[in-house]
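Structure ticket #2291
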Amino acid sequence: MFAWDARGHGKTAGPRGYSPSMGTSIHDVDEFVRFIASQYHIAMENIVVIGQSVGAVLVSAWVHDYAPKIRAMILAAPAFDIKLYVPFAVQGLRLMQKVRGVFFVNSYVKAKFLTHDEARIASYDNDPLITREIAVNILLELYQTAERVVKDAGAITLPTQLFISGNDYVVNPKPQHQFYQQLNTPMKEKHIMAGFYHDTLGEKNRCLVFDKIRTFIDRIFAVPRYQHDYNNEDIWSRTADEFRALTHPLPRLCPKNLSYKLMRKTMNTRWGKASEGIRIGLETGFDSGSTLDYVYRNQPQGQGIWGRLVDQQYLRGNIGWRGIRQRKINMETLIRQAIHHLHQQNQPVNIVDIAAGHGRYIFDAINDFSKIDAILLRDYSELNVNQGQAYIKERNLTDKIRFVIGDAFNTESIASITPTPTLGIVSGLYELFSDNRLIRNSLRGLADAIAENGYLIYTGQPWHPQLEMIARVLSSHRENQPWIMRRRTQGEMDALVEAAGFEKQEQLTDNWGIFTVSIAKRIRRRE
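Resolution: structure written out below.
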């Protein structure tokens, strides 16, 4: 049994009750579990993770966002919806946060409403390491994270045991039942503990809970680890149904349809096109390399004051573009990490990016390295290639980097890349195509091209809060067609990569759980 003091609690450094973000705390769970697996030589498939209250939200979000290959998770009284007895408390806290920045909210819950166990009550009241405060950013992000995890619980395929306290004064039970109902696994249990307060694992009769936990663990270890079959997710899955629904028009007089139509028309007026970002999106597609490069630069431009104001809102008020910029940072982090690993292993650093756009994140990532043997950037678009070649000349990298036109889904073309890549990159491409046959062709080519023990860095988009707006309003690079995307759960994306011959090593995710960046190692080919 292993446990740790979560960030901002117990003996950890820093302010009490504070974390930079829920995304940071979720990543802490990932780091801790991977540390335990590595340090104590425990296979991930032999690990069960237990979380209670806010900890249960962190664990469920980690399983949703990272798709770890553990054996199971056990959740007790997950705080998917904390009872705030003051009307409009959440809205008020959001407003105060905008005015005051980060501040702390004290817990109103008395120990006697957490458990019937007198010893636990005394401990809660007297233990100096117990934190009653919570930073407002974490409290508000807790609601947002819980909402998306409950709404998208169908992405979770892990065996799960859920405990709901029957007399919980802290959290509402309705989202707990909704979460359980949508879990996409045949191996799940729900237990309602009659009379229990919120501290399910610390209740007076907690032996009843632990007996059920032992039975559950015995059962899941008595059979092979459950693995969801992702082979037909692009045809038969919740995300496939969601994708097909987005291809059909909304009713003509539906308020949502009228709203989206107004947005489209507004963007196409001279007032909308006064924004440089909107203009580029309308001309090249909002999913194009030109748009991405503009979003990366994050410098509002436009015609006059109005154009710059609209562009600032377009670039910085849009959660999707903020996530894209964080994805760039995460991509650069893992590129640098892969280069370090290759240097340590005395392998050449031969990089290939099969859909580089303008290549900006590559140029920025390699600034700190003098010893890079070769870089090949490819893209389908002549416009992107020409712009990328201009960047190469600007940075005096013509002796090291080539930029050519290439098909990212042509297996043979990718497999024949020379010199043999030791680091392959595919960023923001697979998210644009629903059909997994294309993805398999691309990954097969990368697996054939990349040297054994080389690395692949790939991206994912398991969730997006603006998916419908994007599909109904924005145009793509493909002949101005609507930009309709099918979400791939992280489990599906990882399964495609693993089937091609790679073993996932690490993942970074933005604070909103939208964009993921993962690194995988090319393993020995199985005969």
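Closing remark: The first helix runs from residue 22 to 39.
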